[in-house]
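Protein 1 of 2
SEQ + STRUCT:
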Amino acid sequence: MKKRTAELILQDPEKFAHHDRVFLNNPVVMQGMGLAPLVVVATTGQNGLMLAAAVALLLVPSRVLACLLSRLVPLHDEDPAPETLQKKLLPRALVYGFSTAVVYLAVYPILNMLFGTGLLSLGIYLPLLTMEPLLTYRFGRVQETVHKAVSKGLRITVGYALLLVLLGCVREWLAAGTMFGVVVSRPVLPMASMPAGGFIVLGVLCAVWRTLARKYKNYLTSEARGLMAVYRQKEGEPEDE
């Protein structure tokens, strides 16, 4: 761990964890976003992989495009007046919806080339990704910079894609005893392939994830304290003659 990282952790552990969208602050596990594709469609490892690829191709480009287009109706204040919200939230919502739809039209041929008719198993939930809160929830917030849109978009993409593939593999194993079509055991929980079973499996997975994230955050804080104590001790030692 670098000294700068240790200083950031000790200065505000919650803020440091907030920026980690992959594990410590995964948007699905910690905020309950993007649940519909997870519980309805991510029933197999293949479906999870297809959804992860779609998110990877959609999220960052649409976020950057929306970031640029939303400058036509900028929203500068964190807590704007009601009059300002009435004038700007609707056009900003349309901008974000339009930008994700445009990116989707460009991305679909790529997905079709990669997965072919397998995309049909995703049904309407593939085009519904254009209205996924993970992509659109920023329209009512302060204007993002392009750098922040790319950086945050990449972190959210990795976190969401990881959970999609993980949940798909776990549900496939529980329901059919297979993983990406390869038999690994007997079926354990056939209802895992159903939306109700998806909620149960996702709930258990989130509980385990949150526990591990809390333990890892405590570990990082402890390591940062120890590292800074070592640095302070070294800085306090007299220089050798």
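Protein 2 of 2
SEQ + STRUCT:
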Amino acid sequence: MNMMRNFANAWRLLPAASVLFLATLAPTSLFAEVSGDLESQAVLSPFYFRVGAYLLDSTTLARVDGREGNIGSRLDFEDDLGLDERKETLLTGFRWRFRDRHFLELEYFNLKRFGRKRIETEITFRDQVYPIGANLDSSFTTEVTRASYGYRVVRRDDWGLAVSGGVHVTRLNARLDGLVFDNVDPPFRSREVASVTAPLPVFGLSGARRLGDKWGLIARGQFFFLDVDDVKGKITHLAAYLEHNTFRNVGFGLGYDWFRIDVDTADTNWRGSVDVQFRGPMVFVQASF
């Protein structure tokens, strides 16, 4: 039931994005007539565009240490700071198949969430200590850009398999803002911000399966672990989509996406760690030619 409600909520976000998206399309032969060759499907068209509504359930665990070596508090941003657990955003994607079996892909989404809460325990964030009972405003921004090169190792009439490699750039920004009290100075407002950019390489595997004349199922996974210099990071990304070639030009789809990035960093703008997970359904429109 929760899954169906999530799809219903995501679907309500789609009409405006769909109109803007479709208005930019020229009346080209975006979907070839269905034939016995899987290459005629959107998954193997030379150019492919997608825009959709992404309804995310999020879990955010982070620690931001001080500049002088102080250890920050391990925070659950949703539970400890009242950050939005569920929020919608737009997801865009593009693929260019520049040779018979070779293609490039690009995806992007940006999610900014806010919270407000009277904290129930003392919190240390960077070099600032927020006492019990302080009213804290918080925000957490996650911006994700995925770029990859893929090669189709298997191409059959009704299914295909591809391997890929690329870079997964995640930009994270955390902010805490609230009144601070001590025994000497009058109360004052303190704002602390931490940010880090984690460009991590990824390797992936994806597959496509035709389900009748109009439907197609696409599944993929991306993984990587990196430990060099002042960054240690791990990425896991799993997704599955059901696409429908509704018209000659345009189709639609729905899917489910699960993504996790776990980073330990000694960057000057964020010393500490962050573990962010997203999961949720999406609905989208697509076009290819």
